[in-house]
Amino acid sequence: MSDDELNNRPEGFQRVTRVLAERGHAHAPLWLEVSARTCAEAADALQVQVGQIAKSVIFRRKADEAAVLVVTSGDKRVDEKKVAAQVGPIGRADAEFVKARTGFSIGGVSPVGHLQPPVVLVDRELFRFGEVWAAAGHPNGVFKLAPDELVMLTGAPAADVVVDS
Questions:
Q1: Are β-strands 90-92 and 53-61 bridged in parallel, bridged antiparallel, or unpaired?
Q2: β-pair partners for 159
Q3: Phi, psi torsion values for 73, nearest 5 degrees
Q4: pTM of this prediction exceeds 0.90
């Protein structure tokens, strides 16, 4: 993507693109012609399994109002009790909180490039796949990475954060 093309993209997508480039990530974000707000939409657009979509779920930590980002496999559901056991009591985060803390709108929250660094947990279920896709700061933006790269980029531990099946 040329600089002119990038400059015509939304600010969140630009920010994630810059962060990934600065960190030497091998795969620049892609701009999809269709929205990928949901895991199913993203999987369809990319022709991958829903589980390969690294969805970002934001919670609000009650103790200090910090954003807690859980990056989980698209075919799993976050177990809030498991998350709270690792980071302290949490509550739901509304769209205004998500945008204010991350700089991203719901449906496009990236694991990197946040306005304020969140507390991050990475779902160990993502390691079922060699390659996953995460949001790149906008519902039309995605980027490819391996689960171990996700851990490296975020500095987050791989954790058990999902509802047992």
A1: antiparallel
A2: 123
A3: -70, 135
A4: yes
| Tokens found for residue 10 | 């939304």
Residue 26 one-letter amino acid: A
Alpha-carbon span 16 to 110, nearest angstrom: 7
Written as six digits, the tokens of 146 are 């391996």
What mean pLDDT is predicted for residues 154-158? Answer: 94
- Residue linked to tokens 């058990």: 160
Alpha carbon distance 94, 114 (integer Å) = 16
Render pLDDT for 59-99 as a digit per residue (tens, 0 to 9).
999 999 999 999 999 999 999 999 999 999 999 999 999 99
Helix ranges, the chain (H): 3-7, 11-22, 39-46, 80-87, 95-102, 147-154
